[in-house]
Amino acid sequence: PADEPAQKLRDRIQKQLEQLPSRNASRWPPVEPIDPQGLPEIPTSWEWVHLGNVVDYGSPEKAESADIPDDAWLLDLEDIEKDTSRLLQRKSFRDNPSKSTKTAFAAGDVLYGKLRPYLNKVLVADGPGYCTTEIIPIRAFGLIEPAYLCIALKRPEFIAYANSKSYGMNLPRLGIEDARRAPFPLPPLAEQKRIVAKVDELMALCDRLEAQQQERQTQHGALARASMARF
């Protein structure tokens, strides 16, 4: 009950976004208010919003290869594990020099893989770097918990929406305008932090259960081999 309602949080976010020099009205006009008809029911303290009205999506800083330091973090789509948001490898520009244009990102940005959105590749950046233009850095300026934003972009409803709006037969992508229009469930900031803590707790439990299952399988295999040898 003591949480600030999401409606007030939404208003604060919109004021923050209006002050950004990159969001001029001619390029990224505010998306019209969302119609919650047909959307899942959410708590009364939450708010259904369009994603583009609460985050900076689609106005990243481009960087040419000549301007990227050799020791800078360089992120490609194949570096992110599908579904899990695990970073599979961390390489520098020196390790994999590229002449193509990259996109700069900052620590705390949520990095969303717009290519083949069904692969569900989303990552919270733990430091600054540069990424392929197939990854969109999403910035919330401290008014949305990055880990919650990551969870919300990985939920089945968003994946289904992204797949339905993707264009291109062989290499489907989610366009910027469709991404900005995506329905986004905005809880109070304190609730976002509680959700992240609960998800972290449950994922840690899943990891322990998976480890136990692998250990049981290993023991079962050893027992089967020992039984056969004894027989």
Features:
five-stranded mixed beta sheet, alpha+beta, 231 residues, 10 strands
How is the secondary structure organized here?
Layout: H1 6-18, E1 47-50, E2 61-63, E3 73-75, E4 91-92, E5 102-105, E6 110-113, E7 122-124, E8 129-131, E9 135-138, H2 146-154, H3 156-165, H4 176-180, E10 183-186, H5 189-230
Helix and strand run: HEEEEEEEEEHHHEH
Say how many strands there are.
10
Silhouette: globular
Strand content: 5-15%
Mean pLDDT: 92
Count the helices. How many? 5
Query: What Rg, in angstroms, do the CA atoms define?
Result: 21 Å
Major sheet: arrangement of strands:
2-5-8-3-4
Low-confidence blocks of residues: none
* Estimated structural class: alpha+beta
Task: Report the helical percentage.
Answer: 25-40%
User: Biggest sheet: strands, sense, closure?
Assistant: 5 strands, mixed
- CA-to-CA gap between the ends? 67 Å
